[in-house]
Amino acid sequence: MxxxxxxxxxxxxEATLAAERAAYAHAHPRSQAAARxxxxxLLFGLPLHWMRxxxxxxxxxxxxxxxxxxxxxxxxxLDDFCLGDTAAMFGHAPPAVVAAVQxxxxxxxxxxxxxxxxxxxxxxxxxRFGLPQWQFALSASDANRFLLRWLRAATGRRRLLVFDGCYxxxxxxxxxxxxxxxxxxxxxxxxxxxxDLRGSTTVLPxxxxxxxxxxxxxxxxxxLLAEPALTNCGMVLPEPGFWPAARxxxxxxxxxxxADETHTLSAGPGGWCRAQGLRPxxxxxxKALGSGLPVAAYGFSARxxxxxxxxxxxxxxGHSGIGTTLSGHRAGLAxxxxxxETLMTPAVYAxxxxxxxxxxxxxxxxxxxxxxxxxxxxLGARCELQYGPRPPRNGKEAAAQFxxxxxxxxxxxxxNRGVLLTPFHSMMLISPATQxxxxxxxxxxxxxxxxxxxxx
Length: 456
Known about the structure:
Blueprint: H1 10-27, H2 29-38, E1 62-66, E2 69-72, E3 77-80, H3 95-106, H4 116-129, E4 133-137, H5 140-155, E5 159-163, E6 176-178, E7 184-186, E8 201-204, H6 209-216, E9 221-226, H7 242-253, E10 257-260, H8 271-276, E11 282-285, E12 296-300, H9 302-314, H10 330-342, H11 346-370, E13 375-379, E14 382-386, H12 395-401, H13 404-415, E15 419-420, E16 427-429, H14 436-455
Parallel strand pairs: 3-15, 5-8, 5-9, 9-10, 10-11
Antiparallel strand pairs: 1-2, 2-3, 4-12, 6-7, 11-12, 13-14, 14-16
């Protein structure tokens, strides 16, 4: 049962949420008019139906975004801690990336042939992440999907292991959850699914070594696809010793580990694995790598790169099911090179990590002063406010802490006070452009919102 607190009374939340919705509508008349106009030509009135998940009375339209600030159509400047749900983790419109992309587009954005940037990006990825061989895709979803094909071909096995509560983009194989009784079930929100994914995917609780060992003992596992920490169901950090023990189990059964670092890149310039000394067999980096352009990269260890190439050379000629026409496009490679050279560096991360710690400390102080039954998790430059007295240890515990009404109130109350959070949960991300004053503004806005809640 979720812990109670006088501030969190449902009637109090409902009354305050109604007032916040009215304030939002009053402040954004141009967004409201533009949103109504879009309904004539766009499904749900939006370019992507996920944009409904902000839970706003009507969509908020952005006129421009720079650094760690977004400017709305109605003239407000918002401190941005969503940062495109990680896609703009290094800030909006970083000058070096803008210049590199402009130069490349002027010389041709795509040709289905490599540019000189390709080898340079490969070498930079080697240096950052420690894996020797790389390929490119348009999204982390594609990169994960392609790696599953490569490793199933290389191992001759078909079963995939994932953790309950994981998120690996739109990879069909991953949409299997554990129900309340611990049984695998198809994710009920999945649209148009015609195959039962449980025949080739096994889902396990995170931080559960016994469950992992039992699954590996079946002998048919092609790979484990995992975020080093769960990030999309509410942040779930690995318990001390979990990953070293899991790595040993995987080695014993000769099962490769794919580390999806799309979100955990917030831990350092080489992601969580490099920062913590975990050795993946393959690795995915998406979203932030192109500073907003649709790109991703995936790497292999020497052993699995060789096995992948052997599998390809032994296959019949024709389409492999891996890659798209724009994979490795010239504009994307230019963006990745500029991001890796100027933003994904230890010096840049030092400031991001320091401000991440400042934010986490401030949130914990505020929770303590208010006596709220909440907790804070931090993954480098990423913080999460969680509605339970201790951070969750698996996906089920994270789901049990979630509160739709409280989340809707918190996001809207902060937006009305000039702070933007990611819509899906109370995640806050620090960019190189984020300033101490913006961190302090977020904390002040949360304090003010709680004052309003207390007065309701």
